[in-house]
TrEMBL record:
GO terms for cellular component: membrane. The chain crosses the membrane at residues 14-32, 38-54, 66-84, 90-109, 121-142, 174-191, 198-215, 221-238, 243-261, 340-361, 368-386. PANTHER family: LIPOPOLYSACCHARIDE BIOSYNTHESIS PROTEIN PA4999-RELATED, TEICHURONIC ACID BIOSYNTHESIS PROTEIN TUAE. It comes from Kordia periserrulae. Coiled coil: none annotated. It holds the Pfam family Wzy_C. This is O-antigen ligase-like membrane protein. It is found in: Membrane. Its main location: membrane. Keywords: Ligase, Membrane, Transmembrane, Transmembrane helix. The keyword Transmembrane helix applies. Signal peptide: none annotated.
Length: 411
């Protein structure tokens, strides 16, 4: 009983309620696509009950112009149902993207009082998943391998890298790479404000460790963007604070990581090189590259350039074009901008770009480093994946986007 009382007092003192604890569960389970929706559903239900209770009727519901932009972006799916043929696919898209509406509504009535704790918990969760994936891979390497000798070259071969590295949860490396990059942005923000040398050194080592994991995971877009964000941020923060010793240490770490990659991560380096060459070849490549898939989408865009094909008809039309171009892959177009253009035409793409433009403008005006980098990460990843068409990307974007826009600077 005394322990229960102490726990209650601790939670009240630190502004932690049941809603916040459910929100912690949401940000810690993006990787778990079966568990994450349970936390989201519970979060919305509990907050809804609290909001509509009689003693909470004075709780304010506050909106912003950006709130209505996000609602309009989701509304494209509903409008697109008016002229789509495949109602089943369209309804699936509407239900899958419902968090685009739910989280802005949630943050409009619930004040996150411990945003710093939420972000720290997210970083800790990402780190725990990285350690779990690495330990599971090591276990398979030492106890399940049927190839000998068990040397470094074997460990960094295709058997234990890429999708095989996250095999435990069948996690898509592009999305987990996005999670890692955002964790690095939060860590870099801590470095920007940290006063003690040993704290900065530990955080730099954490970034180095997770960046090596990213290399091992062969998330190509994430690897390139991660390098750019880290180098630019560290150069700016450390030079501005005149921490030249730590800058030299950072350069040493980056050099060591680069040397390690060239010596042992040949698969990662070759795949990045192959991706760049494939993009240069364009639709003339003999393999099913993204450039060929983007090229195949052009006839659909030309025929439906104003309002698109509708919410549910893209997949059928795209696969038909894939067949005409001898593309064997039967997936999406791997480009969120082209996906919006095919579904909702130039009108939909224009609204999509306005949302990002509004985010970047707000981040710059408010000097919101985390939100600015978050938006850049989403925008860049949208070039190579349909980030906002799968649960891993939708919930990640919806959970942090309006929160960072609306409440980050108010903490």
């Amino acid at each position: 009983m005394q322990l229960k009382t102490y726990a209650t007092q601790f939670l009240e003192k630190n502004n932690i309620d049941v809603v916040f604890m459910l929100l912690l569960g949401v940000v810690a389970t993006f990787t778990l696509d079966k568990i994450n929706p349970i936390f989201i559903f519970s979060l919305m239900m509990i907050q809804g009950i609290i909001f509509f209770r009689s003693e909470h009727k004075k709780q304010r519901f506050t909106t912003t112009p950006y709130f209505w932009l996000l609602i309009a972006l989701y509304g494209l799916n509903i409008v697109g149902m008016l002229y789509t043929d495949n109602y089943s696919k369209g309804f699936n898209a509407i239900t899958r993207q419902i968090t685009f509406v739910l989280f802005p509504l949630f943050y409009s009535v619930y004040k996150v009082k411990r945003l710093g704790l939420l972000l720290k918990f997210y970083v800790f969760a990402v780190f725990c998943f990285i350690v779990t994936f690495e330990l599971h891979t090591l276990y398979r390497f030492f106890y399940k391998s049927d190839i000998f000798p068990l040397d470094v070259e074997l460990f960094f071969s295709y058997r234990y890298t890429g999708a095989e590295l996250t095999k435990l949860l069948e996690m898509h490396n592009a999305y987990f790479g996005m999670y890692i990059m955002f964790a690095h942005i939060i860590i870099l923000d801590y470095i920007r404000r940290a006063k003690k040398y040993y704290t900065i050194i530990l955080l730099l080592l954490l970034i180095a460790f997770q960046s090596l994991f990213l290399l091992q995971m062969v998330a190509k877009t994430a690897i390139i963007l991660n390098i750019i964000l880290i180098v630019c941020s560290l150069m700016y923060f450390l030079i501005k604070r005149k921490l030249y010793t730590l800058l030299a240490f950072s350069i040493f770490l980056m050099g060591a990581a680069g040397w390690f990659a060239t010596q042992h991560l040949n698969l990662t380096v070759s795949r990045i090189t192959d991706r760049i060459m494939a993009l240069q070849e364009g639709d003339g490549s003999e393999v099913d590259t993204r450039a060929r898939m983007w090229s195949a989408a052009m006839p659909i865009i030309k025929e439906n350039w104003l309002f698109g094909t509708g919410t549910g008809d893209v997949k059928k039309a795209l696969h038909a074009e894939f067949g005409k171009n001898n593309i064997q892959i039967r997936s999406n177009v791997h480009n969120q901008y082209l996906d919006y253009l095919m579904r909702f035409g130039i009108v939909g793409l224009g609204l999509f770009l306005i949302v990002f433009g509004y985010s970047l403008t707000h981040a710059i005006k408010t000097n919101n480093y985390i939100y600015f980098c978050f938006t850049i990460i989403i925008m860049v990843c949208c070039f190579t994946e349909n980030i906002l068409s799968r649960q891993w990307g939708i919930t990640f974007f919806a959970t942090f986007n309006y929160l960072l826009y609306y409440q980050y600077q108010k903490e």
